[in-house]
Design brief:
This protein is α/β, with parallel strands linked by helices. The protein has one domain: TIM Barrel, CATH 3.20.20. Helix content is 51%, strand content 14%. It has 17 helices and eight strands. The protein has an eight-stranded parallel sheet with strand order 1-2-3-4-5-6-7-8, with helices on both faces. Helix 5 packs parallel to helix 7 (111-129). 50% of the residues are buried. The mean pLDDT is 98. Bound molecules: adenine and zinc ion (ZN). The site of zinc ion has 6 residues, from strand 1. Residues 16, 18, 168, 196, 219, 277 line the site of zinc ion.
Amino acid sequence: TAFATFVRGLPKAELHMHIEGSLEPELMFALAQRNGITLPFKSVDEIRAAYQFSNLQDFLDIYYQGAGVLRTAEDFKELALAYFKRLAADGGTHAEIFFDPQTHTDRGIAFGVVMEGLLAGMDEAEKTLGVTSKLILCFLRHLSEDSAFETLELAKPWLNKLAGVGLDSSEVGHPPAKFARVLQAARDLGLKVVAHAGEEGPPAYVWEAIDLVKVDRIDHGNRALEDEALTARLVKDGVTLTVCPLSNLKLCGVPSLDVHPLKTMLALGLKATVNSDDPAYFGGYLLENYLATAQAVGLTRDEIVTLARNSFAGSFLSEAEKAARL
Ligand code: ADE
Ligand code: ZN
């Protein structure tokens, strides 16, 4: 349609995408075979059939299992490059991608192997697709603060290749406060700080993320809308929210896309953006998130432009780079 062509043609940045969450079943199968790993699935169709989630944890269990096929730098490079190709096809021109090093180091894959592979994919994407990117190291919040500090230590030789750190995995029971010290240590090293908050967790977690951790962006943030004072604060401070509509739908954060709060967020003056989170698992990459949400809640072209602008404004590009790309 003309609308889809318009949305695809707008330059867009993706600010919330876990690279391990872009592992398509086809590549998962191919890597399992190449690396001599036996998957508990007999076919790609069987894998896809298993992607039915009632909540975040249901998804995480299968997502961490899937990531087990990634072993070599070449695997990580292929994974990243496949994502950037999809992004470019969707009219994405910049991405700030998350990765979960503990998922790999805990099974004996060296931190440097992950970094080398992802950086090679990012490099090639910029050269061959013109897509720029940055890396955000996420600490797994279901693990300990000590483990996060150990991971930050492993990252120190790679600091100039990292834009920031984030906080992901099981939210409820693992508030931002648990990681306030390690996130501060990362900030002291010159890294930006983001955190998943208000995906399944209460508004109190979003308060902690802004007041205690002083995050540069909130990932998701949906449940902030339950708290008027919190919403007002996010508007006043112009905090970017990296919203992931299809993820919210698949993880049952919303019962249907028709009642997704994205349009309301924009109406309230929140700096919302659209992102795919874990596109291989949630059934849509960046453009599909824009289009499905636009269809469901009735986004205008002006609102789409606002979302695309918000994506660059909320990125970790320099002010000069933003001005050139908005
Ligand atoms: N890891 C990958 N995707 C995630 C999400 N949506 N929330 C928390 N952790 C994640
Ligand atoms: Zn996420």
